[in-house]
Structures are given as C-alpha cells and as structure tokens.
Specification:
The chain has three helices and 28 strands. The chain is mainly β. It has a four-stranded antiparallel beta sheet with strand order 1-28-27-26, with no helix packed on it. The protein has a four-stranded antiparallel beta sheet with strand order 2-3-4-5, with no helix packed on it. It has a four-stranded antiparallel beta sheet with strand order 6-7-8-9, with no helix packed on it. Helices cover 4% and strands 44% of the residues. A hairpin with a 4-residue loop joins β12 and β13.
Length: 435
C-alpha cells in the first residue's frame, strides 16, 4: 500500500495551499564595463575569491577598459545577490561593482579583492599603485593602504578578515621584485583598528624555512592558517602547512600541521572553519597533492594528523579550498592533467562531484558552464562561490537559493516544479540541513 507523506496529505486535503520552497540557481557575475579587451574573444574575465558569512556579498576581481581604451585593468569587485543591498555603493542596486582604486599616489592598473569580513562590511586585498602592489582595506567602499613593517617595500596582499575584521591576515615582501620566485614573502597579520602590522613567526627550529603566507583566520581572529616555505629552493617548492594558534596573553605559536604520518610534513593549509576547530588544505606538493582536513577540540590546542580525502574517479590530485562554518562540509578542486573540477566532501558521503550535484539542484542548466574551483562557502553551507568557464570565458559564479511561494498540488508533489537545493541531493548527510 502506498504510504503518503504529510506533504502529500496536505496536497489532498488543502488543494491550492501555498508553501515556501528554496529555488536555487548558479549565477555568473559577469564583468565590469568595458569587459576584457586584451582578448576580444573573451566576453568576461572575472572570478570570486570570498563571500561573507551570510552568503549575500562576494568579492574578487573583474576587468575593465582603461581610460585610453587600449589596455585592460584588473579591478577589485563586489557582488551582491538580487535580494541583497550593494554594500559598496550606499543605496545602490544589487549586482557587480568595481571597488574604488587605492590612493592618489599614482594610477592603479591592478587591484584584487581577496577577502571579505564575516559580517560583510570590510573588504581586503591589494591594489597596485605606481607599480607597487600594496595591501589594502576597503571600509564602506573607501580604500586605505595597510601599514607595513620597516623591512617591507609596500609589496604585499591582505588575504582574509575575521568576524568584524578585527584581524586581517596576508603577506608582505621585503623586496620590490615580488614576481621573482625566489623573493621572500613573510606572513603578516594586521589589527584593523590601527591598520598596523603584527609579524607572524615564520621560522621553524632545525629547518631552512624562512618565508610564508597567511591565508585564512578564524571568526574569533585567534587562529590563523597558511604555509611557510624554504625560499632557497624557490617560493613554492617546499611548503609546510601551518597554524598560528593562540597562547595565554596575545602571543601566537607556530605549529606545523602533520600529514597522516609524522613524515608527511609538506603541504598547505588554505582555510579554517569559523569556530577554528577544523582546518583544510592539502598534503603533498604540486602536482601531487591530496585534499585533507585537520581537526582539534579547542583553539588553544594543536591539530591532530591530517585526514586524507578520497580522489574523484580518474583524477590525480586535489586541494580543499573552503568549508562550512562548522567544517562539516568541505569544497575544493580536483585535477586530472590540466582539467579542473570542483568536489564536495563530508564525513558521511565522502568525496562527490560538485558539478553533478549542482546540475540537479538548480533551475538554470549548466550546459554552458565548466565549474572549476570553488573558493568560498557561507557559514550555513547553502551558498557556494568560485571560478569557472562560461561559454568559453573565465567567469566567477555563485550558487545560492531564494525563498519562493508555490501552490501545493498532487502534481507538483510528485513532479516538483523546482529542483531540491544541493544539500537535499542524495542520502542525508547532515540532518541539520534537511529542513
């Protein structure tokens, strides 16, 4: 005998009643006015690097024509979904906007927004002024260069900001020629209130590691993850995944994050959960990396050994790039040769193809898209953003859902007019997301 669910019974007893459902879409962010003029064949050239905790605001970069109309300029951008208000232009309409350029010391020809604070009010990144890449902060759309230590030469980048942007992390270089692969980078933190830098320990006793980068910071601003490396061997050849964890007082202790065994030390820590309990990244060095996560019970203790993620069928390498606020879901990029595709991981269902999941959970077909690298996830995991190829052009994308009313009938009960959101695709992974 057919068992009817409560939803089916409602459809029978109360035909035509309306309910609220999630209607989801993958939306390309497009590009700034003027587009990508270096290669007219490319309609867009944009990417998203981070989203706010609520998933309403996103930042990254786009391209636009310069004043001469001859060359292209990469600009930091801000994006808001249709129901949001643009935080970068007060009272402005939702959509894609360019962040104002840095300062008046010279024309900015390059800018990049790499992080947005958890509450979405502060953006961090860099802007190139007079040929120097300068770490920047945008508050209420106003750009301000961040302070630098005496040994730095204005070259650097701010990567991420904490809950209310009290702590910003990134890197600086003591040399102007930051494109040189042997140029050192030093991990750095800034206090937003003063804009002044706080150097992070980047030397491990008994090793030749003498540089590094800080990639992410927990919601509290107390835990920072990144990498340190041996610059005598080239900037990226020998990275160690690390966490700077809080000690009593205001000190931070540098800890190498271990692989599955004590001998697996190489890798990168790319992101940390909002609560600071889980870090993700990869073990190994390019091109032989494996996505992984590290878990601990408190921000004041060290992480345990890495848990390695399974590869997608046929793929050769992977790296985890972002995670839900509590670390339950992790997204990343998987690679086979030069081909990239996104994955999603959770402890119950393990590694799955994210494109395949989003393709059956969105009202917009993905036939014109090749989603490649997810770069950010909202705190509740319901918004995912990243970079991909759309109709042959590089373009940033955002997967998000909005509430809509539909009429409950037996027909749309058995044949839903809208697909389920991604967290309802497949067996239950996390009961907290089933509603």
């Amino acid at each position: 005998m057919l068992a009817l669910t409560s939803a089916a019974i409602i459809a029978i007893l109360f035909p035509g009643i309306t309910v609220i459902v999630d209607v989801c879409t993958v939306e390309g962010i497009g590009d700034l006015p003027g587009g990508y003029v270096e290669d007219p064949a490319q309609v867009t050239f944009s990417s998203i690097s981070d989203i706010s905790g609520d998933g309403v605001r996103a930042v990254g970069y786009g391209t636009q024509a310069t004043l001469t109309g001859v060359e292209e300029a990469k600009a930091g951008i801000g994006w808001t979904k249709k129901s949001g208000k643009d935080p970068f232009l007060p009272g402005g309409s939702p959509g894609l906007v360019a962040l104002p350029y840095c300062d008046t010391s010279g024309p900015t020809v390059d800018a990049f927004a790499s992080g947005i604070s958890f509450v979405g009010k502060t953006v961090v990144g860099y802007a190139t002024c007079s040929g120097i890449q300068t770490p920047m902060i945008w508050e209420n759309g106003v750009p301000t260069p961040l302070g630098l230590p005496p040994y730095a030469s204005k070259t650097g980048q701010a990567s991420k900001a904490s809950l209310v942007s009290e702590v910003i992390v990134g890197w600086v270089s003591p040399m102007k020629n930051f494109a040189d692969e042997r140029t050192p980078r030093f991990p750095m933190a800034w206090r937003t209130a003063t804009r002044q830098p706080v150097g992070l320990v980047h030397e491990m006793p008994g090793s030749s590691a003498n540089g590094g980068e800080a990639f992410d910071v927990s919601k509290s601003g107390k835990s920072i993850v990144g990498t340190i490396f041996d610059t005598s061997q080239g900037r990226f050849t020998s990275p160690y995944p690390v966490c700077w964890r809080p000690l009593p007082g205001n000190d931070l202790e540098l800890n190498i994050l271990q692989g599955p065994t004590a001998t697996d030390e190489r890798g990168t820590a790319t992101a940390i959960s909002a609560d600071g309990m889980i870090a993700v990244g990869c073990i190994g060095t390019y091109p032989n990396t494996r996505a992984c996560r590290w878990v601990r019970s408190s921000e004041f203790v060290k992480f345990g050994n890495a848990e390695i993620f399974e590869l997608l069928p046929g793929d050769e390498a992977s790296t985890a790039t972002a995670l839900r606020g509590d670390g339950f879901f992790v997204v990343g990029v998987s690679r086979r040769g030069d081909n990239l595709r996104p994955f999603i991981w959770d402890q119950n269902q393990k590694t799955r193809d994210l494109t395949a999941i989003l393709a059956v959970s969105t009202k917009t077909p993905l036939t014109d898209w090749r989603l490649e690298q997810p770069t950010a996830m909202s705190e509740d995991g319901k918004v995912i953003a990243g970079a991909g190829i759309h109709n042959g052009s590089p373009e940033g994308w955002v997967y998000y859902c909005e509430k809509e009313k539909i009429r409950v009938t037996l027909k749309n009960y058995f044949f839903p007019p809208t697909p389920n959101p991604w967290w309802k695709v497949g067996p239950p992974a996390d009961e907290r997301l089933r509603s």
